[in-house]
Amino acid sequence: MTLTMLATHGIAMERSTLAFWVGYAAQELKPLWHRLRQLLLDSSKLCVDETPAPVLDPGRGRTKTGYFWALSRDDRPWAGPEPPGVVYAYAPGRGAVHGLRLLEGYRGIIHCDGYQAYKTMTRETRADALSGTLAFCLSHLRRQFVKIEREAAPAPAPVAREALERIAQLYAIEKALRGRSAAERRAGRQAHARPLAAALKQWLEAKLDHLAQKSDTAKALRYALRHWAGLTLYLDDGRIEMDTNAVERAMRPIKLNAKNSLFAGCDEGAENWAVLASLIVNRDL
């Protein structure tokens, strides 16, 4: 209940009092947050994402950009035994150091987009590198072609259009396999999706040779080829999804709350927000 709503009921309360209560509750519940995080880190695969959020910068009279990170597990598409879960964490940035802190000790598959920080986190030359394997998001690749086609309209964008049609074929196969066991999904992908993926890669390589190398279409094709191993990792493991849509859905409450509240009052307030949101959102998964 907001201060305005309380006032309509004749309850006068200082903002600082309400903030103290929220902070106190978050600190009391922090052990549950740690336990939830550990349960997720014990998983064989996780989705990871981060999103910006404005945070008041005390003494400067303006906001700065902080980031909410999310770890998500959802094994329902392959009827996995573990329940879905998500944990949020606030960090002042989105660099690898913050992701490493959140994922410290994790060994498994990391679903993510192609953001450089995730690659840095698993780089073997780092002393603190994670031993996880990156599975990249096909939906992020698809969006690049959607954007190219939209910006080209009303003119055609034939390469983007064909890329979208080829990706749609892969998604159609995945839709038919949803809800089946990991072994069944792997078998179905090997039989039906792998030949299409191999043909897609050959097509990407052939088209790239005939495009202006600085064009957005060429950049999208290079992105696909550069991340190919991670984009197609799902073909060999029925537990892996094609995309990171699960964690993006888990981020929606954070984004909505950020929009409605305008900004967090300080870094500590954002940290409290992450703790409480972790417990609230898990209730509805």
From TrEMBL:
Domain Transposase IS66 central as annotated: residue spans: 4-271
| Any Pfam family hit | DDE_Tnp_IS66
Q: Which NCBIfam families match?
A: transpos_IS66
**Mind telling me what this protein is named?**
Transposase IS66 family protein
| Source species | Bradyrhizobium brasilense
